[in-house]
């Protein structure tokens, strides 16, 4: 049975929110990092936090980008692959998730892991909305794809290269479970959702 490693992508600058660190924002009184960690930690062998240039996030394994230039979410994925080089088997799975995704489905890791058994990679979708940072990757396929990728490439380019399969949650979620926070109105909407007890 393949081991599954979790990766929370938490290195963004939150520039559209005035430079606030998204991991520290609270939804329903709980920091985003804690909400996401709670959702996936029970289903993974080890939980990694890709923290950009910061190493003060949470009590899980914090991995820092090697570059001093902010290169987006793929930098965190690259760092995780390097970290796992001597710790994981080639067929093991890395499941990534953006830190600003506070309403992850309970079966998030399970469904993505199952999809990766059929392909080298899979990504979360809700109807026409796709979420390239919320993905699963077989480590050997991901490592090979990253070798040919440019530093400016993002997760979507790697998923395309691997012929990744979408995993759609519309049949079980009436509200998008991958809604995230880019602007102030997103933050307000998700706070309201938490107050109403929606997932």
- Largest sheet entry: 7 strands, mixed
Compute the number of helices: 6
- Percentage of residues in helical conformation: 25-40%
Instruction: Summarize the helix and strand pattern as letters.
Output: EEEHEEHEHEEHHEH
Structural class: alpha/beta
Rg, alpha carbons: 16 Å
Give the overall form.
globular
Number of domains: 1
User: Which residue ranges are poorly predicted, with pLDDT under 50 across at least 5 consecutive positions?
Assistant: none
Ends distance: 30 Å
Mean pLDDT, all residues:
87
Which CATH architecture would you pick? Alpha-Beta Complex
- Look at the structure and name the CATH superfamily: Spore Coat Polysaccharide Biosynthesis Protein SpsA, Chain A
What strand order characterises the main sheet? 5-4-1-6-8-7-9
Strand content bin: 15-25%
CATH C-level category: Alpha Beta
Total strands: 9
Task: Describe the protein.
The model has no long low-confidence stretch (mean pLDDT 87). The protein has one domain: Spore Coat Polysaccharide Biosynthesis Protein SpsA, Chain A, CATH 3.90.550.10. The chain is built from 6 helices and 9 strands, in the order E-E-E-H-E-E-H-E-H-E-E-H-H-E-H. Strand 7 and strand 8 form a beta hairpin. By secondary structure, it is of the alpha/beta class. The protein has a 7-stranded mixed beta sheet, sandwiched between helices.
What descriptors fit this protein?
single chain, 199 residues, alpha/beta, two-stranded antiparallel sheet, 6 helices, 29% helix, 22% strand, metal-binding, EC 2.7.7.77, transferase
Strands, helices and their partners?
Blueprint: E1 4-9, E2 26-27, E3 30-31, H1 32-40, E4 46-50, E5 61-63, H2 73-84, E6 93-98, H3 108-116, E7 121-126, E8 129-138, H4 139-147, H5 155-161, E9 165-168, H6 184-195
Parallel strand pairs: 1-4, 1-6, 4-5, 7-9
Antiparallel strand pairs: 2-3, 6-8, 7-8
């Amino acid at each position: 049975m393949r081991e599954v490693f979790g990766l929370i992508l938490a290195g963004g600058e939150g520039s559209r929110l005035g430079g606030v660190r998204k991991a520290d924002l609270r939804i329903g009184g709980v920091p985003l990092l804690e909400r996401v960690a709670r959702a996936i930690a029970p289903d993974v062998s080890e939980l990694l936090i890709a923290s950009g240039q910061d190493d003060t996030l949470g009590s899980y394994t914090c991995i820092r980008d090697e570059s001093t230039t902010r290169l987006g979410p793929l930098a965190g994925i690259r760092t995780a692959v390097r970290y796992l080089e001597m710790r994981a088997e080639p067929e093991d799975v890395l499941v990534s998730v953006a830190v600003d995704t506070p309403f992850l489905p309970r079966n998030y890791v399970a469904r993505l892991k199952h999809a990766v058994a059929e392909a080298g990679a899979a990504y979360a979708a809700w109807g026409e909305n796709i979420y390239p940072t919320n993905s699963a990757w077989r480590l050997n396929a991901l490592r090979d794809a990253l070798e040919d990728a440019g530093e400016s490439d993002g997760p979507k380019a790697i998923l395309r290269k691997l012929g990744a399969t979408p995993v759609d949650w519309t049949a079980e979620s009436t509200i998008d479970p991958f809604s995230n926070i880019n602007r102030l109105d997103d933050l307000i909407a998700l706070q309201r959702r938490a107050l109403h007890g929606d997932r």
